[in-house]
Amino acid sequence: MVRRWNWVWRVGGAVAAALILTTGGYAEKGSETGGERGGRPPMGSSEGGRMGGGMGAMGGGAPPTVVVAKAARELVLVEAELPGRLVASRRAEVRARVEGIVERVRYREGSEVRAGETLFELDDRPYRAALAAAEAAVALRRAELARQQRLVAEGFAAPQSLDTARANLAAAEAQRTQAALNVEYARVPAPISGRAGRALVTEGALVGKGEATLLTVIEVLDPIHALIQEPQEKWMIRQRLQGETPPPRLMTEGEEVSGEWIVSDTMVDPATGTVTSKVAFPNRGQRWLPGMFVKVRVAIERREAVVVPQQAVASGASGLFVWVVEDGYARMQPVTLGGFSGDRVVVASGLQGGEQVVVTGQARLRPPGGAVVVREERAAAPPSAQRESGGTGGGAPRGGDSPERAGGSREQGR
Known about the structure:
The structure is a single chain. With about 425 residues, the protein is of the alpha+beta class. It folds into 3 domains: about 65-80 and about 305-405, conserved putative lor/sdh protein from methanococcus maripaludis s2 fold (Beta Barrel), CATH 2.40.420; about 80-90 and about 220-300, Efflux pump adaptor protein, beta barrel domain (Elongation Factor Tu (Ef-tu), domain 3), CATH 2.40.30; about 90-215, CATH 2.40.50.100. The protein has 7 helices and 22 strands. The protein has helices spanning about 1-40, 45-60, 125-155, 160-185, 230-240, 385-390, 405, and strands spanning about 65-70, 70-95, 100-105, 110-115, 120, 185-190, 195, 205, 215-230, 250, 255-260, 260-265, 275-280, 295-310, 315, 320-325, 330-335, 335-340, 345-350, 355-360, 370, 375-380. The strands form 3 sheets. Strands 2, 4, 7, 9, 10, 11, 12, 13, 14, 18 and 19 form an 11-stranded antiparallel β-sheet that branches. Strands 1, 15, 16, 17, 20, 21 and 22 form a 7-stranded mixed β-sheet that branches.
């Protein structure tokens, strides 16, 4: 019995020793590899201290420097950019007036032509033959009239026969005139001076068979006209401002071209409630072509409004906004625009007037805002100051200062 208990105690002691050794080994291994698996040293260690210091330096940079201008509330002449379509100031369709085969195209496509210059030549041999026959008929009718005059004078014919002879001669002369015109129509001239387009027919084509075939189109491109449509209410207000408004301007990339009003329609389009007006613009070099869509800036009314420099407005994912600086802190302020006033934009909603808005340095700001340093304050009123400060005078707010382009949505260090 004693011998059995001794064996039990020996086996139990061996098992306990094995368990103790196994547990200790795992504990040692965990302590050696814990730093590698955890990826973060203890906060009290030197490595943890260095990492915490680096993060503090990244978030604690100096506030960005910006230039601001005050949003002004004043009585301004509000302008709007209206879509327009360009048309030629003069346009003529060159058509074949007689039937025939095209023998020759005598102009260079796309070149300037003069009025009366021959553009196409048709085969005129049938018409020359008809002209010769008409001339022979006229000679015959004249001889007949002379014979009738002698017979009447001698009493061998009634006086009424002279009337018939004279009528026959007039008809023959009319046919000769028509035959001569057909010979002339076989040479197709330019009806106006201008730029001739591409030839719509080539040599050997039969034209004028039952219709006046279109051969080419001539257009006058300098000046060029823009057709714009205005709501009838805005058109009536603009009529009251005549003489007090600047000329209409054609807005292009980096350039404004002044024009003059030509005419407005005599009725309102009942389908759209708009009035179509025509504006003439110089087109030296023929940079613009008929059919192009453009923007024309016109004055529409005079009223009190809040205005800011154009470069203060930026665009983001949620729309247009400005950076408002208050007590050294910049914040995003959504706005809606209501037109233009010279080099400035009219703010319809979002600003009350008197706020300081950022005009330079938006690229260094991140939503929703942060502390800034105001380097200089610019007045928003004089348009000349806006041009000197970098305003482009274009119609669209600059997108280069939008937070999406500048990158990220990181908040400024406060």
